[in-house]
Fold these 2 entries.
Entry 1:
Amino acid sequence: MAQKPSIAKGTRDFSPSEVNKRNYIFDIVKKHFKTYGFQPIETPSFENSETLMGKYGDEGDRLIFKILNSGDYLRKVDDKTYESKDATAMTAKISEKALRYDLTVPFARYVVMHQNEIDFPFKRYQIQPVWRADRPQKGRFREFFQCDADVVGSDSLLQEVEFVQLYDAVFTELGLQGVNIKLNNRKILAGIAEVIGERDKLIDFTVALDKLDKIGIDGITKEMREKGISEKAIEAAAPLFSLSGSNLEQLAVLKDLLKDSEEGSKGVSELTFIIETIASLGLQTAKLTIDVTLARGLNYYTGAIFEVGAPEGVQMGSIGGGGRYDDLTGIFGMKNVSGVGISFGLDRIYLVLEELNLFPEAIDQSLEVLCVNFGEKEGLAALKLVSRLRKMGVKSDLYPSAAKMQKQMKYANNRNVPYVVLIGEEELENNTFVVKNMLIGDQKTYSLNSPEEFINEL
Amino acid sequence: MAQKPSIAKGTRDFSPSEVNKRNYIFDIVKKHFKTYGFQPIETPSFENSETLMGKYGDEGDRLIFKILNSGDYLRKVDDKTYESKDATAMTAKISEKALRYDLTVPFARYVVMHQNEIDFPFKRYQIQPVWRADRPQKGRFREFFQCDADVVGSDSLLQEVEFVQLYDAVFTELGLQGVNIKLNNRKILAGIAEVIGERDKLIDFTVALDKLDKIGIDGITKEMREKGISEKAIEAAAPLFSLSGSNLEQLAVLKDLLKDSEEGSKGVSELTFIIETIASLGLQTAKLTIDVTLARGLNYYTGAIFEVGAPEGVQMGSIGGGGRYDDLTGIFGMKNVSGVGISFGLDRIYLVLEELNLFPEAIDQSLEVLCVNFGEKEGLAALKLVSRLRKMGVKSDLYPSAAKMQKQMKYANNRNVPYVVLIGEEELENNTFVVKNMLIGDQKTYSLNSPEEFINEL
């Protein structure tokens, strides 16, 4: 008996309409990546396990999909490992490859392996799927695309400025006005921990601070106390809890607060440069705001930290983020390569555009002209017309068989075709074709000798 | 100590230049898929194992990459299986998912699972990677892209006609003139086996016939004898061994040879319809030729069989192929869905275009304008210019730091930049910028107030 087919848990099929919408986003992102001088690379879907393992923490190691070795893979397992029946020990013996978990580690491997061909600073973008063995739930998938742009080999803050402009350019063209580009700097967080005398508790402090929006000042002070952060420190940090006003006003507060910390002051001056340069260049539709509670990927970032929030009124987590890191390639033995990068959250951007009805209407118009098929002779005349239309780049088709008119018109309707062409016996005799405009319902007759008259009207 | 990174066996990194060249091919193929009314779908990289296993024969099962279950996967293995230490039995217990082996089986699954949303005939294209655990060798990879277009739900021969036109359109636009679209029909092969009285030896017969080009008439008659095909049969089939002349002349020979076979005659009439319709429509640059030795995927195809050969003088196997199949979705319980499809062999097309120098020159020009960075103040003026250029869609960049002129010019050279912009102290005072044309070496000065003068000249 034939099996009932199913799709793997946590994965998705994409219908034509979904692929078109996803490509609409990718194409706009790519276009701007290119005008900003970024170049595409692609890396393989799977890597040798040692390239990936140990790079994402224990949880990451667990979530990496491992590929079983081919052939009689059990033969290579020694008796001791086999008898232990321990999955972790066994995995190392029966699996040598694993599916990519993100695009960052493969990029680092790429840079190290190709360092002699690359012209630094290297501006690369990469849009490829990644895989994670997470428990699937709403909005979380086991296969999803990441969309990253990074510059490595330059420590210039102009790169940070450029990424703010790039976010603005992409979201403006997507019609997503008013996104909030939040900006912070790891050095500011470190400086704060330093001046309040809690350098060792940097992570506890920022994790608590990060919850300011959710649990308020009382909530975070309580959490800080629980983590052993002193009353004196909490008091010293208090100006942060009610930081408000313009970016320049906030910078003034931070500058004062961090005046005794060298690192913190450096963070303030970096932040100031980015804010001032962007103010001088202007943004199209995005806002740029300082957010000292922003601490994403703290262990990883060393300078600027970015996060993009959807426009006000849209319930959605961040739709993009990134930051500067100082030692991407160190894990593979190439030192002192500073980098900064951002990513776009495709799936969330898709949901936001859908919610705000921002996809172009024509996106589901995969066919502009459908010729009705009235039989072999008429069909051949229609096929000649279709061939000419296609050569002019018009998406067109002939219904493949002389099915009932109703069935062919239903197909045209379902496929959202705006123009239906009729070449019946009479038209064939007169060497004409009739075009039915499906939107307004009228009909017009053209000569088969000069179809360009119709094409020009399209 | 840092590890030396490596790439998994049989996989490839693609550099910016390679990605651009691959996308050049994909974009042209996609453009024509769309004008022919095909719609894109995408399916997940991995499928449940039962969807893939048993669909490609024993060899295929062996070459499918299996993904290890997550967590403590050994716990679910019963003692008996574990003690047997048999890899095949074990695989079934510790792996539930596998990487896609081709795009055809996932497409069949898609059609069956989405049959109620699909408007038939369904014309879909799909361009995604597939994975095979083959031994890597020159030109054979463990990860490679397939590029397929299929129509399901129509048995009209117009689809075959359309695929011939589609091949012609794509290869013409790629500049690959004179490709040879070879055409055969499974029914003709079956008819031949019938009229020579060797119906049971259809596969042996066609496998031998397929070698005609390589081993000649003597070689194939010897092989046929060895396979137990009778002298009488070989004699009866002899007209095939020296089939020549125009398509119409060959059709006449076949028609006569197969006149007593119903199936064979049907094959001849199908072939005749395709050949005559194409003759009436005309092809741009491709040739369409009958090739009765063409037998690819014999177990699978039921009607037309296509294969595209590179233009004469290029040493390369087929660069495309396909055919009609009558029961794609039967394996998943959906009967009577006739389909026909073709594919493009991306990697080989890439090699042919490279060999014939057919990629556009501008493909490696990832940056049109580079501004030299002379310092903070000059840099800001340059950044403003770059921002304007980017808004106009010009791929442009500012060198991120005020490095030595020589270093910046070397970078411009390496990245193939045609225009280098200079804004030094003097230019900044005069509110101008200098454009150096890197190809002809001359310089021209423009006003920073009206950069559109330069843009219009681009």
Entry 2:
Amino acid sequence: MSAEEQQQNGEQVEAQQPADGEQVVTPWDVTGGADGKIDYNKLVEQFGCQTIGADLVERIERLTGCPAHPFLKRGVFFAHRDLKELLDAYERGEPFYLYTGRGPSSEALHLGHLVPFMFTKWLQDAFKVPLVIQLTDDEKFLWRGLSVEESRRLARENAKDIIACGFDVRRTFIFSDFEYVGGAFYRNIARIQRCVTMNQVRGIFGFTMEDNIGKIAFPAVQAAPAFPDSFPHMFGERKDVRCLIPCAIDQDPYFRMTRDAAPRLGHIKTALIESRFFPALQGESGKMSASDENSAIFVSDTPKQIKNKVNKHAFSGGGATAEEQREKGANLEVDVPWKWLNFFLQDDAKLEQIGREYASGRMLTGEIKAELIAVLTEMVERHKRARELVSDDVVDAFMTVRPMTDLYG
Amino acid sequence: MSAEEQQQNGEQVEAQQPADGEQVVTPWDVTGGADGKIDYNKLVEQFGCQTIGADLVERIERLTGCPAHPFLKRGVFFAHRDLKELLDAYERGEPFYLYTGRGPSSEALHLGHLVPFMFTKWLQDAFKVPLVIQLTDDEKFLWRGLSVEESRRLARENAKDIIACGFDVRRTFIFSDFEYVGGAFYRNIARIQRCVTMNQVRGIFGFTMEDNIGKIAFPAVQAAPAFPDSFPHMFGERKDVRCLIPCAIDQDPYFRMTRDAAPRLGHIKTALIESRFFPALQGESGKMSASDENSAIFVSDTPKQIKNKVNKHAFSGGGATAEEQREKGANLEVDVPWKWLNFFLQDDAKLEQIGREYASGRMLTGEIKAELIAVLTEMVERHKRARELVSDDVVDAFMTVRPMTDLYG
């Protein structure tokens, strides 16, 4: 960047390069504070969203008649925007749909990638609502060195893992931007783009003068699915269908921008339900990285790989030796096996018991790791079996623009 | 614009706001120099294109077996990029196609709008090549206060006037961006966008931080039709079909950018054949404006309107009185009726005679205006009759994405 560029982007560069120890959360960068941890309370305050309290969880259970998903009970999905308004509308019998997505950057998904999809599936089943899933192959093309063809291929591969999470084909439309952008969807992209200046995307996303113009245009592509008339085969020209987006909280900037544009375009502001980041095996200092193979468990990993990765790389809050663990117990605050079990061990009573035993030192590090290995192995093997059933024809069934019926109920 | 913005866009603001008397030619602004005139030699030098000499005109006649269109003989289309290379390839039997377009901003076209289409029709007939015509309804939406619906409606209305110029439906694909962007075309847009930074579009087009991100993205939308694989229904995935763009010279910046991107994307650089501006009735100080009704003759004008506009508003280089005209003759350099006859009077001998008589003072201002009125009335009435035949079905025939055969010969 030239000195002139530096000057031009003065405030923004500062905003993107905070003082040492300040946390940074953008769609492309998640870095914890001085202690390496994300301060989620601070993030909620900074972004201007709300935390999800027990009252809201109970209300969802009451409205859907379903016990809350562990991610909801345990605060994995912990923040929201306008969720109360959405539930009010749902209670009045007004329709909504779910929108989530993924940037297809790697061959196989890792467990962190599955988190929003597992939760979205639960939301779809509980509320019995339609769902759109955007695969931003254009985003990955614009940000990385991939070819268009490779981005599209990865999008289809990722679609298989997503479908294996169990979505209902009658109510689920999966699309890649390189396939679906056009028509009503492109017209909404242009409408959003007209509402947003270069100055604004610089402020929100930290774009600079050196960024390519595709990146600068892209936020509108991610925003457009939040408006129901981007999907005429599902909603016709209706603008009164609300949208709820389950996503990790790093995506919040996109949807702040979307919510700003919504009323100017005659749309209802999209609601959000936002998750914490799934920690890397090495410890909670942000998200897992698909580029560091040992930081994550992939849905394609063998039982042996899972066992080795957990035993070798999972950061432990337990004592350095069995004796020390027996004496002092484990620090659950930093223990990755404990954190991961909180995501994936369904049984509340068993989870509580493990926590108690491990914290007190009655359970050893090797033992909690073994519990985690069992849970992950079962989960990954189940996923693999489901994925094997997802043929190309099944992918086509989800990804074809088709008149969709039975959207509700 | 804030002071900070001013500073940020320092060089660019200067480039867009030259000293008094300096000409400015961009796709959105055409302003003549100190004398109000465009210095086309200077423009050619500044843009880095070439002028078209008599040798090139003769070569086109020889290759096509057709006498050159008056616009070519008389220097209306006066500049080019890589036209010689294109003709070399044509001579070797290699294919090319034509690409032109229009931003649909007004209900009816004026005669200045027709100039590129009349010439493009001649090129299509002479070379027997396919043609794509882009209607940038998205551009007009992004730059003006129009709704998406109004932009699309104007695109279809304009398509009728364009079709009335006589294009061959077997070889002509007309599309509006709000209809056609998507698939292979969108993928090329993204490919081009990845090659171009915000800094570059600021330099080429003068965009500022206050411009909306749709404008910033748009140059890639106008560039994409210059690559044949944006039209799989015409060219499949071929990249070896050359492109020739007939346009007014103010569009040159778009295609300089396109030509820079072409080799990086494995494409042949598009060739250009560029015209002067059609002068306003009030005199040659740039392009006609659809927003000033009296600056132009519209294809919807009645014979009476044509007569009144020419008699009242056409700037005359003749003497102030009949006596003065007889004594001193007319200054053809600034005379609009003379300039317009140079565009539209086909008969070379008659044109020469009028010029001689009028310059010498033997012909009066009223007489040359009467000649022009006769030419324009006949031309506009012929256009109206042709346009009446262009039903919605005919528009659909040109605008439908269809497998196209008989593209050549």
